Structures are given as C-alpha cells and as structure tokens.
Amino acid sequence: MPPLVCGLLTQTRERTVCGMLLGAGLSRVWPHHRAHRFFSHAVWSPDPLGLALARLVITVLVPGGAVTVAVDDTLFRRSGTKVWAASWFHDGSAASPTQVGFGNTWVLVGIVVRLPMLDRPVCLPVLARLVRKNTVSASRLWLTRRMVTALAAALPDRRLHVVADAAYAGRELRGLPARVTWTTRLRADAALYELAPPRTGRCGRPRLKGDRLPGLAALAAHAPFTPLRVEPVRAEHHRGHRHPPLPVMARSAPGRSPSSCCVRPPPTPAAAMTPPWSPPIPSPDRLRSSTGMPLAGRWKPRSRTPSRSSGSGRPVTGVPAPSSALSRSV
C-alpha cells in the first residue's frame, strides 16, 4: 500500500499501523481497520516486489559481470504472547554472554554493490524470509536455497556468487543452478578427503571420494602461510553437491580472531589471487532503525502466502593454498 509506505518513511516516532497512518496524514481519513487487515488477514507476498527491486539494482548498479549475493540472518527482538512465529533464537549481536533472544528471526538475501560515493562495497537487501520453528521453514538453509533459486530465475543472464557463513552449508545445496556458486565457511570438524580414484571397471558403484585426510588443524599446522597467496591443498568431500570446491584457510594476525577455513568455487585465472573475505554488509540493526521493521507488529498464519515460501570485512593476513584439482562429492 503506497500510503502506508509513505507513512513509514515520514513517521519519526513509532512505526506502528496507527503511526504510519498518522505519518501519511490519513489517521482521520481512513478507517484504521483497513490498514490493520492488510497485515493480519490479507494474503500477500513480498517476493515479487523483492525480485523487481533486485532487477532494478542489477540494471542500475551492476551493469555487467557476475553478481555477488550475501546471505545472513538477524533476530528482531519482540515481546508478547501473540506475536506470530516469535520464539527463542540465537542472537549474535546480543550483549549478554548467552547470546539468546526472543523475537522473529529473518533470513536476508542482499546484493553487494559498489557505489561511487563510497570506497567500500555495501549490501542492499532484496529478499527476506521468516524463520518458523517446528516447520520446514525452521531451516535457514532451506529458506536461503529457495530465495537464491528465485533470484537466479529472475536474472537468467547473470552468474550469482553467494557468500554465507557456516550455518549455510548442507544437503540443500544439491542441484544448485549451474550459474550459482556458493562460498561458505567450513566447520572446525570438517572431514577432508582425497580426490575420488579412477573407475576400476568392476561392477558396483564407483567411489565418490578418496582416502580421508587429516583434520583442518593438522593441515593448517603444516600449511605455508603467505599473505594473500593461494597455493594447492587437498580435496574436500561434502554432502552438498558435486561442483568442485576450493578450501581456503585463513590465519589472522596475532591478537585477532582465531584461524578459519572456508570453501569457495575455484577462481578464474584473473581472480586467482583474490582473498576470500566476506564483503562488508550493513548491520540489519541499522536497517531496522531506519525503517522500523517489522511494519505491522502482529503476525498471523493468514497473513502469509499459501505457498511454503513465505560486518565489516577485513583483509586476510594469511591464505594457504587451495588445490586446482578439487572435487566435492555428494
């Protein structure tokens, strides 16, 4: 509803339904139940709007080449017993040691762009899905896979490079579109394997992976670390999909966060020396402070569509060498 959007942007106080009507100058013109019904009873979906926004962003700000897509989730703290899909979730930005909060968790998909007035990349959110416990939508990866697939279908002539943290890796990555690559962080206990041996010509299923390699800690202990240098390491067997991955280990400078390992697609020759750090992404809290999300405050089952779909980065100080002949098997 355009009047509610205008009221959302012009309202300087609480952005509730009544506040939006007040900001739009319609508090004495519209019956208030007309706006409340839009959020509580009407069947509507923000996906068409998000995909249209994505096409506009790509056309204006990413005129050519591949598109970098950033994925993350955020907790919007709520209170009350009638808030739809509210529950206890992990909150990485919480000040308490427990890092747990009550509210709605949203999975956000944004397009990373470079603006002429800034010297760093920014992420423009275009799609979002609500995490609902005890349903198939409780899986953040399940929601992300469907948003990325929809985004790839809306951009048929572009390649998508998806970057995400360790929570976004698993079986849902099987069968990704050929134009989509997925870069994620490896778990600390990730199992690494040699490349699959050649076929033996005998009956039976061929091997999908070779012999198991030592753990990440053992590999990192003997791996050469040279700043921004990429060299070959071994293969990694993952249950996600069969696209060849590129495991990359990063060791931070003394006093910084501990070492980590991520997996990304093999780079092109021109991008072989590109360090695999995540692009800077504006905090979802800053986005919420400017828009007052969520708009309506109360969520009910009838307000969703009938379908099931409903950091600042810093340079890596050391990169050991991933292999040019890597394979990821199912």
From TrEMBL:
Name of protein: Transposase, IS4
Positions of region (Disordered): 236-330
Matches recorded under Pfam families: DDE_5
Biased composition (Low complexity): 254-263, 306-320
Domain Transposase IS701-like DDE: 4-215
